[in-house]
Amino acid sequence: MKRTTRRIGVLATVLAFPAVLLAPSASAAPVRLSLPAPTGPFAVGSTDLHLIDHSRQDPWVPGTTRELMVTVRYPALPSGKPKAPYMAPGVAKVVAEGDAAKLGMPSDRLDYRFPTHSRVGAPAIGGKRPVVLYSPGGTLSRSHGTTHQEQLASEGYVVVAIDHTHEAEAVEFPGGRVEKKALPPSSIEVSKRVIETRVRDTRFVLDSLGLTRVGMFGHSAGGFTAGETMVSDRRIVAGANLDGSMAHSQSQRIFGRVADEGLDRPFLLMSAGDHSAASDASWQEFQRNQRGWTGETRLPDGEHFSFTDYQTLLPQLGNAPAAFVGTIDPARSVAVQRARLSAFFAEHLRHRSSDVTKVSLSQAS
């Protein structure tokens, strides 16, 4: 399947999620899903933070204040604390219903409350730690990048994953309140507003946690977000884009600032399937204007959602649709991505940690 719809602009990324049918299962019981275990030397702790930006109105729901949920994963001491569920209950229900409809299976077979490898509130290991931010793809949850988040945390990073409220299919806040997607119909102007909102969300998280020198990576629109935030905020010293267009419209060549202006800091590109710098005009423009280091890692047998947890979750449901995660061996895909991201942040961020990391960890220890 060609993914030309994704290259039209950032909003096409997940809105064009292919409707594919999995092989029917003889059992109606929920599939016991799991994620690959992180391979770093540290155990992983996690805590969720509710951040309210009292200076800003929500751009998608008039009359409401902008509020976010973030998950902080960090190197932790071994602990008997409970394992964090993959998704909060309200989010798990909404995402399962949507995925089941697209995959042609009953929603009660998808239980996204399965345990991860992170322990809720596990005691944090002290000392300075490099910090990496994560932004998910369009309409996706911060949970969809858990594999990468846990891996980096197990290697010694503090990873802060951001949900973009009312763009994600669902975000659950304290008390069980669930805020669902509230985006208007897709257009170039809406795409610009989406990215502008994401950039403001990211900068607000940096402000709230007192972070001054971080890395950032994201899938799809999250990768676009990383680059756009770097244009206007020098606190992000290294970024990575996992298969994300950096255009609001490829056909009209309406690109983001990161493509038009480039960066003077390192920025990694990762692509899959028929998408690469050779086929994406916004990436070509970025490479022409980039002043700092850049490089590309491509998974030719992968697909757009190979850079999310779907790479390993879908095969557990049966015949994983190639249009979604490609034909690449899931274990190999994860190993290649882990190695590349780890090497990138080790080179460009590892020795640039901030002593204020403990602001975010104080609520977890």
UniProtKB/TrEMBL annotation:
Gene3D superfamilies tied to this protein: alpha/beta hydrolase
Annotated SUPFAM superfamilies: alpha/beta-Hydrolases
Record GO biological process: lipid catabolic process
Top-rank taxon, per record: Bacteria
Signal peptide bounds: 1-28
Spans traversing the lipid bilayer: none
Keywords: Hydrolase, Lipid degradation, Lipid metabolism, Signal
GO molecular function, one term: 1-alkyl-2-acetylglycerophosphocholine esterase activity
InterPro entries: AB_hydrolase_fold
PANTHER family from the UniProt entry: PLATELET-ACTIVATING FACTOR ACETYLHYDROLASE (PTHR10272:SF0)
Protein name, entry field: Lipase
